[in-house]
Amino acid sequence: MLSCLRSLLWSQSCPDRPGKKVVSGVLVLLALAFLAPSSAWATTFLRWTQSSGSGMASGATLSNGSFVNQYDEATATNTILSQGLVEQVRDGVVEQTVDYRVSLYSNSALFYNESDDLTNNAFVIHDDGQADWYTAIRGSGTAALLFEFFAIGSAFGTPEAVSLSLTSPHRQPDGVDPLADEVKRLHFNEVYDVQILGPSGVPMRSFTDDYNQLQQGIAPGAGADFSLGWGQPGFGNDTNGDGNLDVGEALFTFDLSAGEGFLISRSSDNGKRSALGITAEGFFGGTQPIPEPSTALLLGLGLAALGVRRRQTL
Fold first, then answer.
1. Residue 68 contacts residue 98 (beta carbons within 8 Å)
2. What pLDDT, on a 0 to 100 scale, did the predictor assign at position 284?
3. Residues 163-176: pLDDT tens digits?
4. Which pLDDT score is estimated for 111?
5. pTM for the model
6. Is the pLDDT of residue 13 over 80?
7. Which helix (H) or strand (E) holds 27?
8. Which of 233, 263, 264, 283 is the most buried (most CB within 10 A)?
9. R_g of the chain computed on alpha carbons
């Protein structure tokens, strides 16, 4: 059996033994079976580690294990809400590490001084390293954050490019603040504008949206490159059938090409409470299956077996 297998691999002749056809057939079948999508998927995300932040109005920084960095209408623009380092993690391996800084760019007509104030307007980093932005604006309100990235050890002086993906929030507000309500719906009229900053090239975006949950063709706001908005009723994965895109039903990523900075804003959309997850998926291959080594090996063996059988037939 070993001599036949060796012959198959090295394209040598092999005496016609009863087991030879069985070996070739088994190898081919195994190779074909493993051509199905592998269960090993590329998993990519940004892991945020805060070194300092604005914290909460009470002076505390942590709530239920999450770093909460609040702002309200009285917070000065350009206030640094959070800074530290962020890692691009792919399949458990850190591929890129940069310093980050998140600053308040715009804040007007906000909802605050309510019972769930901790999560009405805040940039939050959870204990698993995932980041969310919670916003609560009035009809004419605006909220905007500036995300900037820098080379490690440059004292926030040397910009470095990073790619971002926007998703539904990683954690509901009531998981951070027990007094908060969940963000139950992502309303059709909630729109986020995105401007990609820096010299890294022409801004690009892609998205995964298997359930048609994103609006297509939204005209970006003034100065913005792209706009993200939720789909109208009729989207897929409406598990409770209420015609609303509930956070638990939202399955999409809005993927942005590399930039040294990103200005993300929400303005005059007649919504109230909303939330976004800030991570990285699409441009890093976060939804692409990767072949396991055994798959490639079996495929090679199967093709070699087919080649040997063909030569012997001729």
1. no
2. 37
3. 899 998 999 998 99
4. 87
5. 0.77
6. no
7. helix 18-33
8. 264
9. 26
192 closest CA partner among 149, 161, 147, 236: 147
Q: What is the pLDDT of residues 224-238, one digit of tens each?
A: 999 999 888 889 999
User: Do 119 and 130 touch, CB atoms closer than 8 A?
Assistant: no
Same-domain pairing of 87 and 173: yes
Look up the domain containing 306 and give its range: 2-39+290-313
CB burial readout 56-70, b (16+ within 10 A) else e:
bbeeebebeebbbbb
Host H or E run for residue 306: helix 293-313
Q: With residue 283 as reference, give the H or E element that holds it.
A: none
Residue 98 and residue 25 share a domain: no
Count CA atoms closer than 13 A to 106's CA, side-chain side.
15
Maximum Cα–Cα distance across the chain? 86
82 neighbors 125 (Cβ within 8 angstroms): yes
pLDDT tens for each residue of 204-216: 999 899 999 998 8
Classify residue 310 as exposed, middle or buried by CB count within 10 Å of its CB (0-12, 13-18, 19+).
Answer: exposed
Give the tokens for residue 185.
């719906």
Stronger pLDDT, 216 or 252, i.e. the higher one? 252
- The DSSP call for residue 36 is S
With a CB cutoff of 8 Å and minimum separation 6, the contacts of 153 are none
Is 296 found in the same domain as 251?
A: no
| Residues 298 and 207 placed together within one structural domain of the fold | no
How far is residue 86's CA from residue 207's CA, in Å, rounded to a whole number?
22
- H or E element, residue 68: strand 66-70
Provide the domain count of the chain. Answer: 2
Instruction: Kindly provide the residue ranges of all beta strands, DSSP E only, lying in 209-279, ordered along the sequence.
Output: 226-229, 253-259, 261-267, 273-279
The set of residues, in sequence order, having a beta carbon less than 8 Å from that of 233 and lying 6+ positions away, is: 188, 243, 244
- pLDDT of 82-93, one tens digit each? 999 999 998 889
What totals of helices (H) and strands (E) does the chain contain, helices first?
3, 14
Do 159 and 261 lie in a common domain? yes
